[in-house]
User: Which sequence fits this backbone?
């Protein structure tokens, strides 16, 4: 059983960068989680991975085990959440189909745009949702997991809004994973 004790961080007045060591430790730990995640997806053994992470990132055994455990948790949560994501997309498809039918039969009328533009937008949404559902079903049939975004909140929201491409995001995550920490930066 692990016990964790919370302690306050005392900041010295003379130290210009009081949290520098903590920031460095967090960066190494996040890199360790990403590394462990990718290796676990590649089929590497958990026990061997803990030893490998311990040596490669110069972390103690507890941090190495925690990083591997968090990576495992991410993988298992993605597998558990996949059916609910498929259900949500299916509900959105049904609701969009109902809206299209309501506009076509005249039960509803668009307020700000013409009927043609409204139906065109709804049909585009329907196509997009059906594509997303087929991707999720394919992932479920293969037994894999959907894309997991590491790299912070900013990259996550940019990827959701399609402001960055999948290839760019993949490149930035690979470069983050392969980032070398100099010996003096390791803790």
Assistant:
């Amino acid at each position: 059983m692990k016990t964790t004790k919370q302690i306050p961080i005392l900041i010295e007045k003379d130290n210009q960068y009081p949290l520098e060591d903590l920031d460095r430790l967090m960066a190494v730990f996040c890199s360790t989680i990403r590394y462990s995640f990718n290796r676990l997806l590649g089929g590497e053994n958990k026990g061997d991975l803990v030893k490998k992470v311990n040596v490669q990132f110069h972390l103690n055994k507890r941090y190495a085990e925690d990083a591997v455990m968090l990576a495992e948790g991410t993988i298992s949560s993605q597998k558990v959440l996949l059916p609910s994501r498929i259900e949500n997309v299916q509900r959105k498809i049904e609701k969009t189909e109902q809206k299209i039918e309501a506009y076509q039969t005249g039960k509803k009328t668009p307020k700000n745009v013409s009927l043609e533009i409204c139906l065109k937008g709804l049909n585009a949404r329907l196509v997009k949702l059906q594509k997303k559902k087929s991707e999720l079903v394919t992932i479920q049939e293969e037994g894999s997991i959907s894309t997991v975004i590491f790299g912070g909140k900013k990259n996550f929201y940019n990827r959701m809004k399609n402001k960055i491409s999948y290839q760019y995001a993949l490149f930035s995550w690979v470069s983050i994973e392969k980032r070398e920490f100099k010996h003096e930066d390791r803790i």
